[in-house]
Automatic annotation (TrEMBL):
One of its GO terms (biological process) is metal ion transport. This is Zinc ABC transporter, periplasmic-binding protein ZnuA. InterPro entries: Bact_metal-bind_prot9 (IPR050492), ZnuA-like (IPR006127). Pfam families: ZnuA. The keyword Oxidoreductase does not apply. The keyword Repeat does not apply. Belongs to the bacterial solute-binding protein 9 family. Keywords: Coiled coil, Signal, Transport. One of its GO terms (molecular function) is metal ion binding. Residues 188-215 form a coiled coil.
């Protein structure tokens, strides 16, 4: 039986219409995700989300300016971005203090890295406790093992720079992946594949950093005590901090104690978080100590999708290299 042109057209129409409908549906889903994106607060965390979401969607970075997340001033456009977000990923109120109230007003799914089960936390140190030269590696608290004490200490006592531990970063990545899968189950296979690739890359970098910083017992001091997770994971010899946080003032008495500690412990390295505080210049000039910039937030990374996607890896590698240079004799 021969087919007429009319039959052929009708047959092709039956094939094409479902394809058009599927394409329109996919495009609508994509548009909805673009209109209601995943918003991530800081670069190291954004890096993890971008790696986990590869091939599915691209998250949006909230903090692109060089400001402290403790005292960040949001623009109106950033407030609108949060209001339209489908998912918001942040460390928690201990880090992004400026978001504590704002985030309670959002309808989005909120993913807090500090809530990941299995994290090993370190208690914040107070530098005056360490000026004797008997440094502390910090007290460890596991959310999984000591939840009651953890909840009591979280608000004011725990160091929130949790991503500076590779082991913690793996825990955080798993936590985020679980939440993304719950929100977008049709892409479960892709999220799981991306998670395994991410864990493999994190583990490889962790091992390389440990090898490169192995047996380095040279003491150092910090301006702002933000690096103890990195120190602990790589057995570095912390002595003291100049200030409790990056914006605290320093008394003359405490500065004299720091200078005494530098001489007593033969400290040759002083690390700080950029931008470089004036007190670092003054202290380095008087003591001839070497200085190194360590950038835990990736604030000095050049803007661009590659740097943002790989921010965590670039941050950790940069901290390793700058520590190694500063601690070398």
């Amino acid at each position: 039986m021969s087919l007429t042109l009319k039959h052929i057209v009708a047959y092709l129409t039956l094939l094409i219409i479902p394809c058009i409908a599927f394409s329109a549906s996919s495009e609508k889903n994509l548009q909805e995700k673009n209109l209601q994106p995943i918003v991530v607060t800081i670069k190291p965390l954004y890096s993890l989300v971008a790696q986990l979401s590869e091939g599915i969607e691209q998250p949006i970075l909230l903090m692109k300016q060089m400001q402290s997340p403790h005292h960040y001033t949001m623009r109106p456009s950033e407030r609108r971005l949060l209001a339209n977000a489908r998912i918001i990923v942040w460390i928690g109120p201990q880090m992004e203090t400026y978001l504590s109230k704002v985030i309670q007003q959002q309808d989005a799914v909120i993913i807090s890295a500090m809530q990941a089960s299995g994290l090993n936390f370190l208690k914040q140190r107070f530098s005056r406790q360490h000026l004797s030269g008997q440094h502390s590696s910090g007290q460890h608290f596991s959310r999984q093992q000591n939840n009651t004490k953890q909840n009591h200490l979280t608000a004011n006592h725990l160091d929130p720079h949790i991503w500076l531990s590779a082991d913690n970063t793996i825990v955080i990545s798993k936590h985020i992946a679980q939440q993304l899968i719950a929100s977008n189950p049709e892409n479960t296979a892709t999220y799981k594949k991306n998670l395994q690739q991410l864990i493999s890359k994190i583990t490889q970098l962790k091992n390389e950093i440990k090898t490169n910083l192995k047996d380095n017992a040279q003491p150092f001091i910090t301006h702002h005590d933000a690096f103890q997770y990195f120190e602990n994971e790589n057995n570095l010899n912390y002595i003291a901090s100049i200030s409790f946080d990056e914006e605290s003032s320093v008394s003359l008495k405490h500065l004299r104690q720091i200078k005494t500690s530098i001489k007593k412990n033969n400290v040759q390295c002083l690390v700080y978080q950029p931008p470089k505080p004036d007190i670092i210049e003054a202290l380095a000039d008087k003591t001839k100590i070497k200085t190194a910039a360590l950038d835990p937030l990736g604030s000095t990374l050049s803007p661009g999708p590659d740097n943002e996607k790989n921010a965590w890896f670039k941050i950790m590698r940069s901290i390793e290299l700058n520590f190694k240079r500063c601690l070398s004799q």
